[in-house]
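Note to self: the last two entries modelled the partners one at a time, which told us nothing about the interface. This time every component goes in together.
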Amino acid sequence: MRFRVILPEGVVPAALRPELAAGIGRVYARLFGAPAAEIGVDWSELPRGRFFTAGRPSTSSIIAGTVPAGTSDESRHRLLAEITALWCETTGCTPHEVVVTAADARS
Amino acid sequence: MPVYHCSIPEQQLDDRKREQIAGSVTRIHCERTGAPPEFAHVLFLDATGGAAVVGSIRAGRPAALRAEMAAALAEAVAKTLGVEPGLVRVTLLEVPASWVMEGGAVMPEPGAEAEWLARFATGRPRRARERTRSPGGGD
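The predicted structure of the combined assembly is written out below.
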């Protein structure tokens, strides 16, 4: 199971990435029972001028992952909320700078 | 959400054109859906071949609206690139609102935004509020 993070250059220091990736792994493992070691994060940092929000240079992070098909809204929303909180606490951003998605995994 | 990925060869773009496309995509989406511009994200990826725009938008909007949006997006991107609209491929992917959290809240279903928008209006970042109030800013 892998999450993909897309963010503009310079928004999240590289030094924080291991902590964020480990945090996502812990949250996912606790909620869905998967071994944390099997949960990875792929980072896509876009150069300046290639990520816009509201038509202006962005400071947002997009974190995209999947959950098992058939997951309840309650579990899915708990994952979304905990990753949002993790991101804000670790990076100092606001919730308005975090987009988290959890799609159904393809069987 | 929405998130628009623009895959366009680097040689067709410069900073001004990226800004122009980002502004057009944001305006087209927000004018037709009523979404606050602060939720519209536009990303640029290098690509080989032709220009393509893939937008992930909330599911549940009428097919006619999606078709109108796709046509307007193709026309706007083509105009900036100086090519025919038929050379810009636009795909709109529908994503269930309940799969997405932004601004610390699960996205509302289309047509059920009133309460969510009211909460957003009071909870949005100060800089966003100031930007929207400033002349020519925001949308």
